[in-house]
Amino acid sequence: MSENWKDYQDNAAEFFRSLGLSAETDVSIKGVRTSHDVDVVVRSKHVGFETLWLVECKLWKSPVSKLHILALREIVHDTGADRGIVLSESGFQSGAVEAANLTNVQVTSLAKLTEETSQDVFAMRLRELFDRMETCRETYWEMDKGYRIEQGLRPETGGYGYSAIFVMDTCKELLSRAIRGRFPVEPGTIPAMFFLPDLPATFRSAGEVVEALEPHMAELEAKLATAKARLHGTSEP
Asked: Signal sequence span per UniProt (predicted)?
């Protein structure tokens, strides 16, 4: 564990980055009433929706009190953040825990967060990827076959080239297995993996699946967004 507060703060930010989230330290964030200095601001964005978490790092020798939890609750409310998190390796006073219960402020330690939360977050990201894939599928089938070929979303019948449907089928199969916790997952058993030759031979965790599929999902979303914009005569993304 970190010996000084700055290292502790940096380690907290790095933890969230390791989950594929954006994390900045020492951020001044504007609220409705005033601006607030926050130790770590964590953001993620999928399908046009942004999630905002505010993290306070308390590397103290004594447990965190109720007053500090109430203060963060006010900051979360003022900024419209989705969640507040207080990290402390020295624990929390009973009043602090009670002040956090049934609210969108979580009290924990970086050690516990690292041990327990990473799998929960990756499970959430698997479901997000699955939802994004289903949204892509809906967009794909809104376009007729000829237009999909013209936009490079699929090859001519009997031809070779990028195939959005095979990418989606592969992602769906991998994500379905990962969500059910069926590890190890071997994409070599999936016929469509021919179209994603850079995939690892074996996935042993949800994190590995997220890391491998995220760039393919982003590429597919970009291709579909461009095709949809051209179809409707709007500016390309």
From this structure: none
* Token pair 């500090």: residue: 68
Claim to verify: residue 130 and residue 80 sit in the same structural domain = no
Confidence of residue 188 (pLDDT cuts 50, 70, 90): low
pLDDT at residue number 57: 96
Q: What is the strand order of the sheet 35-46 is part of?
A: 22-30, 35-46, 49-58, 83-88, 105-108
Does residue 225 sit in the same domain as residue 133? yes
Is the pLDDT at 103 greater than 70, yes or no?
Answer: yes
Q: What is the pLDDT of residues 72-97, one digit of tens each?
A: 999 999 999 999 999 999 999 999 99
Q: Cα separation of 109 and 90, whole Å? A: 8
Question: How far apart are alpha carbons 171 and 173 in whole angstroms?
Answer: 5
Cα(192)–Cα(222) distance, integer angstroms? 20
**Same domain assignment for residues 140 and 184:** yes
Q: Can you tell me the mean pLDDT for 107-113?
A: 91
pLDDT for 181 equals 85
The CATH number of residue 52's host domain is 3.40.1350.10
Which residues, 6+ apart, have CB-to-CB distance to 212 below 8 Å?
A: 199, 200, 203
Is the whole-model pTM more than 0.70?
no
Least confident of 159-163, 187-191, 230-234: 187-191
